[in-house]
């Protein structure tokens, strides 16, 4: 609302002054006074007089009337008509589409000045003619914008939902489609108004628009040009008026668009803060060196309300050839933890504390170039959505070869041969032919196999897979998980698997970390944790899986947002076993090979 | 379940279901082909649904399972009448569905509802949730604004949402709550038939169970006929009475859920079940990885559409389309020539 106030007031003031011109105490804008020709200042004329001795301020305000009337009227006509045509064309397609789009194309074929000349020749110059010309000129823009927006909106589920409710077409178009295409159309309006003011000036300047002596900004500029050297200010005034009006219009339209957009969000500010890590706080573990050893990992994001911690004090260790699963609901921080370990955090987030030792070396304190050498080499990552991670314009064989050559100095031909071998390795039939395919020519399962081929191209010792099978069908998921298990067995690769599917964890992982609201709530070997969960959250999560004969039981409520975590145990508000003792934050209690964060776990598992 | 044979169907239904009523929605040999559109379009039409029989009675939940491209969502839209079938018929309450867009069709919308998969895309981000749930009432009833408001508040309470939040916008709700909003919108006009198209697939497992429970309660309390489309077999097992397993537009197997899950008889159903991750190692089936990729729906294999990936396939499977026939139990039917040998 606040954003709307300033530009709204500015536009309102400009319009008000123009509308009130007849009642304002102004001099007659067309009365000539040759004695005061080009005077810089005359009492009653603070902006001076023009080449015929007419009052500049009066002409500026009266000129606003014609300039703005032309601009608003033509933008409004073009917007109404163009949006309507675009709506109908996009919704009904067929003949309506043909008429709207081809009609717009025909208009676009005419150079604007030529079109104006033609119309002026036919109808004679004047304000009405100008409005007509400008409306026709802006029409194609509105048709195109609204047509494109309707096409993308009509495929949305919410439009289908209203249709399924039996709404008539006008209702769907006006209530559902129109508000959703309003944003771009409003932007187009602001552009049209702004450019109409300019074009009006231009066409009037050429003598094709407003007819003298009626004042308009364009005519004022035209008149001032002849006497530019004697009275430069005459040129400045209408230009300043133009600039301010256009700026105010643009700001207003932006504000209106933001206001009309109820989707919320706003986004966190993009801040990259200096990494202030404290080295040496975490002792290196004893015994055989683990592949990956994470301790006290904490990620912070600065948001307008303060600092939130999407990952807090995360710790686990992974040995070579094993799979560790991180599970939790959306918003538990599991993906953020993985990106922090890989050094791929979004710019707003930063690691605030902790270590992540990969074969003894702390990834979090490593300079970026060193980390980059590891990424895609000794450690690799597979993401949930293979389509957005593959480059759509390159053949997949080339992309895999590129992944090889990014880390090893091999000739292109050898890399290509290796790429084909990798594609075969991940179970792609006919790899020689498939290597020449583009990502869109492959199914989702095949694309995920390509992603895995790229990830294992340089024989990584650690693979971090973030929901690698979530977007896939179960039969494809089974094949991908089988492939990962095979690679792990044969290459001795360690895998960190991030997933929300407890079934997947049960089938492929040896160890599991259960996260809730940024914290580890339970950790241990999968068989033990799933057979005898110690934390009420783990229990509730397992009970929610619709597997077995017992009716699945949901967990009431949702994961709290990072800016409103409960003061004590974060799960307490949703926990069936919460008592007064849960008001103090529980510590992660380390048992022999399990860990649990619950004050009541002993009595609950008794 | 097919009702192509009326006598047969009546016999089965009596045995099979406690809610002993005539089917409310009946699809007979429905087909849906999508032709390539546009002047320059080339290529063969895609046959998304190829001759499927299905029926749902009041108070009954029919599960439709299958993977992407199996035609399960298209079947749902055909039974709702949102798409006009290119072959076969769909009858609702005894009469064939009218042409989409006609006045009769619009009137019928009040008696059917749909819940979508995507809790984000299925709500209009720019309108208040109250206005969206109210749409059906505004379109189909002559209730006053105050009466509509009262119905709306009751509906919100029914699906477990706070009526205070009628004026809020979708982004202020969590995924599970949005799905509840979608259910409230579909049920506002008190329909008889509800199609739920993967309503819980996008939700966390802890939230899934809540929404499934809500759907089960609503079906029982309102006596809804429900078509539950899902790729998640365990959820179907808990919510539905009967299940249809689809592959490439055809029904592979159908029957009471308990039967189909205990004795999956089609090789595809078995592969699907074996691929479903299970918590309890004891319940796991030996995993069968399907070789190759699903064939293109523009050029489905001859005979049995599953034969290209089936390890039991024989030359005979390419010859004829296997008919659905009774196998291993009442109303349990399988479309496999070799069902007897391989089971």
UniProtKB/TrEMBL annotation, chain A:
<feature type="transmembrane region" description="Helical">
    <location>
        <begin position="233"/>
        <end position="252"/>
    </location>
</feature>
<dbReference type="InterPro" id="IPR000515">
    <property type="entry name" value="MetI-like"/>
</dbReference>
<dbReference type="InterPro" id="IPR013563">
    <property type="entry name" value="Oligopep_ABC_C"/>
</dbReference>
<feature type="transmembrane region" description="Helical">
    <location>
        <begin position="172"/>
        <end position="197"/>
    </location>
</feature>
<keyword id="KW-0067">ATP-binding</keyword>
<dbReference type="InterPro" id="IPR017871">
    <property type="entry name" value="ABC_transporter-like_CS"/>
</dbReference>
<dbReference type="Pfam" id="PF08352">
    <property type="entry name" value="oligo_HPY"/>
</dbReference>
<feature type="domain" description="ABC transmembrane type-1">
    <location>
        <begin position="64"/>
        <end position="253"/>
    </location>
</feature>
<feature type="transmembrane region" description="Helical">
    <location>
        <begin position="104"/>
        <end position="124"/>
    </location>
</feature>
<dbReference type="Pfam" id="PF00528">
    <property type="entry name" value="BPD_transp_1"/>
</dbReference>
<dbReference type="InterPro" id="IPR050388">
    <property type="entry name" value="ABC_Ni/Peptide_Import"/>
</dbReference>
<keyword id="KW-1003">Cell membrane</keyword>
<feature type="transmembrane region" description="Helical">
    <location>
        <begin position="68"/>
        <end position="92"/>
    </location>
</feature>
<comment type="similarity">
    <text>Belongs to the ABC transporter superfamily.</text>
</comment>
<feature type="transmembrane region" description="Helical">
    <location>
        <begin position="203"/>
        <end position="221"/>
    </location>
</feature>
<dbReference type="Pfam" id="PF00005">
    <property type="entry name" value="ABC_tran"/>
</dbReference>
<keyword id="KW-0813">Transport</keyword>
<keyword id="KW-1133">Transmembrane helix</keyword>
<dbReference type="InterPro" id="IPR027417">
    <property type="entry name" value="P-loop_NTPase"/>
</dbReference>
<feature type="domain" description="ABC transporter">
    <location>
        <begin position="292"/>
        <end position="542"/>
    </location>
</feature>
<comment type="similarity">
    <text>Belongs to the binding-protein-dependent transport system permease family.</text>
</comment>
<protein>
    <submittedName>
        <fullName>Dipeptide/oligopeptide/nickel ABC transporter permease/ATP-binding protein</fullName>
    </submittedName>
</protein>
UniProtKB/TrEMBL annotation, chain B:
<dbReference type="InterPro" id="IPR027417">
    <property type="entry name" value="P-loop_NTPase"/>
</dbReference>
<feature type="domain" description="ABC transporter">
    <location>
        <begin position="27"/>
        <end position="273"/>
    </location>
</feature>
<protein>
    <submittedName>
        <fullName>ATP-binding cassette domain-containing protein</fullName>
    </submittedName>
</protein>
<dbReference type="InterPro" id="IPR003439">
    <property type="entry name" value="ABC_transporter-like_ATP-bd"/>
</dbReference>
<keyword id="KW-0813">Transport</keyword>
<dbReference type="Pfam" id="PF08352">
    <property type="entry name" value="oligo_HPY"/>
</dbReference>
<dbReference type="GO" id="GO:0005524">
    <property type="term" value="F:ATP binding"/>
</dbReference>
<dbReference type="InterPro" id="IPR013563">
    <property type="entry name" value="Oligopep_ABC_C"/>
</dbReference>
<keyword id="KW-0547">Nucleotide-binding</keyword>
<comment type="similarity">
    <text>Belongs to the ABC transporter superfamily.</text>
</comment>
<dbReference type="Pfam" id="PF00005">
    <property type="entry name" value="ABC_tran"/>
</dbReference>
<keyword id="KW-0067">ATP-binding</keyword>
<dbReference type="InterPro" id="IPR003593">
    <property type="entry name" value="AAA+_ATPase"/>
</dbReference>
<dbReference type="InterPro" id="IPR050319">
    <property type="entry name" value="ABC_transp_ATP-bind"/>
</dbReference>
<dbReference type="InterPro" id="IPR017871">
    <property type="entry name" value="ABC_transporter-like_CS"/>
</dbReference>
């Amino acid at each position: 609302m606040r954003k709307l106030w300033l530009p709204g007031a500015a536009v309102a003031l400009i319009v008000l002054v123009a509308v009130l011109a007849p009642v304002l105490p102004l001099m007659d804008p067309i009365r000539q006074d040759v004695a005061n020709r080009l005077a810089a200042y005359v009492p009653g004329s603070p902006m001076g007089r023009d080449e015929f001795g007419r009052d500049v301020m009066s002409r500026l305000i009266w000129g606003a009337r014609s300039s703005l009337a032309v601009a608003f009227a033509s933008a409004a006509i073009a917007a109404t008509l163009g949006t309507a045509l675009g709506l109908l064309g996009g919704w009904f397609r067929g003949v309506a589409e043909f008429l709207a789009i081809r009609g717009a194309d025909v208009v676009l074929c005419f150079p604007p000045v030529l079109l104006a000349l033609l119309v002026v020749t036919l109808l004679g110059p004047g304000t009405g003619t100008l409005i007509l010309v400008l409306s026709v000129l802006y029409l194609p823009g509105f048709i195109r914008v609204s047509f494109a927006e309707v096409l993308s909106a009509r495929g949305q589920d919410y439009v289908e939902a209203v249709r399924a409710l039996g709404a008539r077409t006008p209702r769907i178009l006006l209530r559902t489609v129109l508000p959703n295409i309003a944003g771009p159309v409003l932007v187009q309006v602001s552009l049209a108004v702004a450019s109409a003011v300019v074009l009006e000036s231009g066409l009037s300047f050429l003598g094709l628009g407003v007819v003298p002596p009626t004042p308009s900004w364009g005519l004022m500029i035209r008149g001032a040009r002849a006497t530019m050297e004697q009275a430069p200010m005459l040129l400045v005034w209408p230009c300043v008026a133009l600039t301010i009006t256009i700026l105010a219009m643009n700001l207003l339209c932006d504000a209106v668009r933001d206001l009309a957009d109820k989707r919320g969000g706003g986004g966190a500010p993009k801040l990259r803060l200096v990494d202030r890590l404290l080295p040496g706080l975490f002792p290196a573990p004893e015994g055989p060196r683990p592949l990956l050893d994470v301790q006290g990992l904490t990620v912070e994001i600065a948001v307008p309300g303060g600092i939130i911690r999407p990952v807090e004090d995360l710790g686990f260790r992974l040995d070579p050839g094993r799979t560790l699963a991180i599970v939790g609901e959306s918003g538990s921080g599991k993906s953020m933890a993985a990106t922090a370990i890989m050094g791929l955090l979004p710019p707003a987030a930063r690691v605030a504390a902790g270590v992540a030792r990969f074969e003894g070396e702390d990834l979090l304190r490593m300079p970026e170039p060193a980390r980059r050498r590891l990424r895609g080499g000794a450690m690799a990552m597979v993401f949930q959505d293979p389509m957005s991670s593959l480059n759509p314009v390159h053949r997949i064989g080339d992309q895999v070869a590129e992944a090889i050559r990014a880390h090893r100095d091999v000739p292109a031909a050898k890399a290509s041969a290796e790429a084909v071998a990798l594609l075969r390795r991940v179970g792609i039939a006919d790899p020689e032919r498939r290597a020449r395919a583009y990502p869109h020519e492959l199914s989702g399962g095949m694309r995920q196999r390509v992603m895995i081929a790229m990830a294992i191209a340089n024989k990584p010792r650690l693979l971090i897979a973030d929901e690698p099978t979530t977007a896939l069908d179960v039969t494809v998921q089974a094949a991908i998980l089988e492939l990962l298990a095979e690679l792990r067995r044969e290459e001795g690769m360690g895998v960190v698997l991030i997933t929300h599917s407890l079934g997947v964890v049960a089938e492929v992982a040896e160890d599991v970390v259960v996260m809730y609201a940024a914290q580890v709530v339970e950790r241990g070997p999968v068989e033990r944790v799933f057979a005898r969960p110690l934390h009420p959250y783990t229990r509730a999560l397992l009970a929610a899986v619709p597997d077995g004969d017992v009716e699945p039981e949901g967990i009431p409520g949702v994961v709290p947002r990072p800016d409103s975590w409960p003061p004590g145990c974060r799960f307490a508000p949703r926990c069936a076993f919460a008592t007064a003792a849960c008001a103090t934050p529980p510590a992660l209690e380390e048992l022999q090979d399990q860990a649990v964060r619950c004050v009541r776990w002993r009595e609950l598992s008794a | 379940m097919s009702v192509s044979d009326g006598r047969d169907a009546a016999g089965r239904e009596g045995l099979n279901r406690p809610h002993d009523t005539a089917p409310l929605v009946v699809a007979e040999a429905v087909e849906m082909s999508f032709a390539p559109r546009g002047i320059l379009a080339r290529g063969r039409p895609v046959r998304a649904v190829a001759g499927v029989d299905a029926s749902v009675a009041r108070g009954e939940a029919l599960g439709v399972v299958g993977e992407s491209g199996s035609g399960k969502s298209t079947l749902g839209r055909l039974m709702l009448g949102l798409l006009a079938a290119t072959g076969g018929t769909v009858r609702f309450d005894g009469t064939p569905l009218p042409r989409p867009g006609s006045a009769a069709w619009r009137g019928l919308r009040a008696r059917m509802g749909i819940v979508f998969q995507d809790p984000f895309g299925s709500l209009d981000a720019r309108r208040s949730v109250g206005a969206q749930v109210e749409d059906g009432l505004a379109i189909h009833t002559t209730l006053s604004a105050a009466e509509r408001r009262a119905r709306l508040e009751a509906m919100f309470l029914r699906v477990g949402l706070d009526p205070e939040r009628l004026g809020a916008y979708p982004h202020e709700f969590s995924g599970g709550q949005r799905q509840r909003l979608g259910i409230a919108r579909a049920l506002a006009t008190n329909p008889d038939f509800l199609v739920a198209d993967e309503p819980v697939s996008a939700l966390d497992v802890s939230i899934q169970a809540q929404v499934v429970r809500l759907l089960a309660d609503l079906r029982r309390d309102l006596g809804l006929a429900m078509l539950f489309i899902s790729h998640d077999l365990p959820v179907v097992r808990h919510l539905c009475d009967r299940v249809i397993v689809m592959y490439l537009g055809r029904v592979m197997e159908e029957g009471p859920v308990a039967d189909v899950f205990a004795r999956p008889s089609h090789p595809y159903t078995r592969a699907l079940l074996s691929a479903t991750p299970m918590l309890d190692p004891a319940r796991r089936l030996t995993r069968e990885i399907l070789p190759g990729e699903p064939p293109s729906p523009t050029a489905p294999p001859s005979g049995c559409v599953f034969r290209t990936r089936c390890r039991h396939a024989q030359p005979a499977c390419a010859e004829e389309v296997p008919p659905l026939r009774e196998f291993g139990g009442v109303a349990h039917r399988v479309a496999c020539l070799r069902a007897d040998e391989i089971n």
